[in-house]
Automatic annotation (TrEMBL):
Residue intervals passing through the bilayer: 28-48, 86-108, 120-142, 154-175, 208-239, 259-277, 318-341, 381-400, 412-439, 451-473, 505-523, 555-576
PROSITE patterns linked to this entry: ABC_TM1
Superkingdom of source: Bacteria
Protein name: Sulfate transport system permease protein CysT
GO BP term (any one): transmembrane transport
Topological relation to the membrane, as annotated: Multi-pass membrane protein
Nucleotide-binding listed as a keyword: no
Keyword Thylakoid annotated: no
Gene Ontology CC: plasma membrane
Family designation: Belongs to the binding-protein-dependent transport system permease family.
Broad class of where this protein is predominantly found: membrane
Length: 588
């Protein structure tokens, strides 16, 4: 026994027989490709275009010139734009958190009939194209609309409401995923010691949820600060943000200098937010490891007390239920239902005229293609973009899901994770315009990507990759590493380990990742508006063009086209939710 205790064991990666002598080389090659391929994609199709465009604003006559910062920030317009951006981000984040926490409780902590369907429907607004969200709120608030008497059309309040509509599900799913796993016994012990329901929630449950709330707030702030389509449709030029200002300076004034300054400011904000999100996400994962593996669902109690004689930690399930019901019905469902109703109403009567007109190019040739052609273009491009995003994002998630033993390795993995989140916060306009500047003959290759029809799906894939990573990563991190070690010990090559261990366990998250990537590609507008040719316009670009053209017929077509795009997105996400099943993680 003593002799055996001192017998050294072979390292897990060390060859144990001649048949396995090539295994370490194969493993190094596999992981090398898994890192190099995504990094090459990020460098060529994100970092290079963005840095080139930004650099053009700071280079004059071949020399570095930082005077653009002084010129840009010496004008009141720039400070007003920065103030509006931060203001809408702060208010949108605060409202999303305040309304989302009760929703997380009702939809993830409590059990009631129809909960799964409502969860899926609550997810739809997050993946709706921003142009559709803008059109939906504008049709609701415009003069003559159901809420036109509030005179909110074209106001800052309308923008904030639309941002809450868009980001509500981020808080619900992120906080709810953790809340469903919290061990209820800690709260029950506090109640048994005499704490009131509110005190037990404030001192026990809320601190446990704090990392998830902070993580969700960071992500929502990022989305609100970089909103483009919603602000452009609802705010116009009066309530612009850094994102819309970059678009205006680039497309209308051709002022790359000011656009570059604003892009740098946005990059700084994005980097700071991603740093906060990364740290809070790490704290959240440690909290999850301390919780119960079983979901602590409990029946929704609207009246009276439960079997244990106590009421909910929120002072009764009625309050969070009412708040959630009001948000779902009034804020989420009403704009979409009104959009559908107005698309079916022509000259005061019910009619399908707006939908029949989708086979035309609009009044006075507003479009170069029909809306149905634009729909097919969107679907075709989204399929290609989804395939690219799934490969790149899947490799990133695979690498980042590993936890190296060395501190340097852990930092490298965390850095890689943060790098691939940057596309979510960098102006899509900067990416799109950067494509036009740099990809005429990339790396000296004899191909002009600007005319090859590949720029649009590549640009959409750049935006979709972070969503794939955030969806697949939690599942891969939850896999017990001993399963991989056992497969390797039995002689499985690295590729076979992935096929037999990682891929089957991550299959449901892959379905949801495909749904998110496809929906995000369908609705991408910022970069696509730069890159799509008029004869190959996508559906969001066609909708925006119809809104900008005069005529009631064009506006009616925009409403109908928005309904088509919303329905297509909803079907995709409902199918993805069915593939995922009832297992819900904290990530999107």
């Amino acid at each position: 026994m003593v002799g055996r205790a001192h017998t050294p064991r072979p390292a897990p990666d060390a060859p144990t027989s001649p048949a396995k002598s090539g295994l370490p080389v194969a493993r190094v090659t596999l992981w090398g490709l898994a890192v190099v391929v995504p990094l090459a994609f990020l460098v060529v199709f994100f970092a290079w275009p963005v840095l080139t465009l930004v650099g053009k604003g700071f280079v004059a006559d071949g020399h570095l010139d930082l005077g653009g910062f002084g010129e840009a920030f010496s004008t009141p317009r720039t400070w007003r734009i920065v103030g509006l951006t931060l203001g809408q981000a702060v208010l949108g984040t605060a409202a999303s958190v305040l309304l989302g926490v009760p929703g997380a409780y009702v939809l993830f902590r409590c059990r009631w009939p129809g909960r799964g369907l409502v969860r899926a429907l609550v997810t739809v607004p997050f993946v709706l194209p921003t142009v559709v969200v803008g059109v939906a709120f504008r049709s609701l608030l415009v003069e003559g609309g159901p809420l036109g008497f509030l005179h909110l059309d074209g106001t800052f309040t309308a923008i904030v409401l639309a941002l809450v509509f868009f980001n509500y599900t981020v808080v619900v799913r992120t906080v709810g995923g953790l809340w469903a796993r919290l061990d209820p016994r800690a709260e029950q012990a506090a109640r048994a010691l005499g704490a009131s329901s509110w005190r037990a929630f404030r001192t026990v449950t809320l601190p446990a949820l704090a990392p998830a709330i902070a993580s969700a707030a960071s992500i929502v702030f990022l989305f609100c600060a970089t909103a483009f389509g919603v602000v452009l449709v609802l705010g116009g030029l009066q309530y612009g943000t850094i994102e819309t200002e970059i678009w205006i300076q680039t497309t209308q004034f051709l002022d790359l200098r000011t656009a570059s300054v604003l892009s740098v400011v946005q990059l700084v904000v994005v980097a700071a937010v991603l740093l906060v999100a990364s740290r809070t996400r790490a704290r959240r994962e440690r909290a999850l490891s301390l919780g119960s593996d079983r979901a602590s669902d409990r029946r929704l109690r609207l009246w009276g007390r439960g079997p244990d004689g106590t009421r909910s930690a929120l002072g009764g399930d009625l309050v969070p239920f009412v708040v959630t019901a009001v948000v779902v019905v009034v804020l989420l469902a009403t704009p979409l239902v009104n959009l559908l109703v107005r698309s079916l109403h022509v000259d005061g009567a019910w009619s399908l005229a707006n939908y029949r007109a989708l086979g035309s190019t609009g009044d006075r040739g507003a479009l170069s293609v029909t809306v149905w052609d634009a729909t097919w273009n969107s679907v075709r491009i989204a399929l290609v973009a989804t395939a690219i995003a799934l490969v790149v994002g899947g490799l990133v998630a695979l690498v980042v899901s590993r936890r190296p033993r060395r501190r340097v390795g852990r930092r490298a993995v965390a850095t890689l994770d943060s790098l691939f989140m940057l596309p979510l916060g960098v102006s899509a306009v900067t990416v799109g315009f950067g494509f036009l500047v740099t990809l005429d003959r990339p790396l000296g290759l004899p191909v002009d990507l600007r005319t090859a029809g590949l720029l649009v799906p590549i640009a959409q894939a750049v935006v979709a990759v972070p969503l794939v990573v955030r969806t697949v990563l939690p599942v891969l991190r939850a896999i017990d590493p001993r399963l991989r070690e056992a497969a390797s010990t039995l002689g499985a090559a690295p590729g076979r380990v992935l096929r037999t261990v990682d891929v089957p366990l991550a299959a449901r998250s892959l379905g949801l990742a495909i749904g998110f990537a496809f929906a995000a590609s369908l609705g991408e507008f910022g970069a696509t508006s730069f890159l799509a040719r008029p004869d190959a316009a996508t559906l969001p670009v066609a909708i925006f063009d119809l809104i900008g053209r005069p005529g009631q017929g064009n506006y009616g077509m925009a409403l109908a086209a928005s309904c088509v795009l919303a329905a297509l997105t909803a079907v995709v996400m409902l199918a993805a939710e069915q593939l995922r099943g009832e297992r819900d993680g904290g990530e999107l």
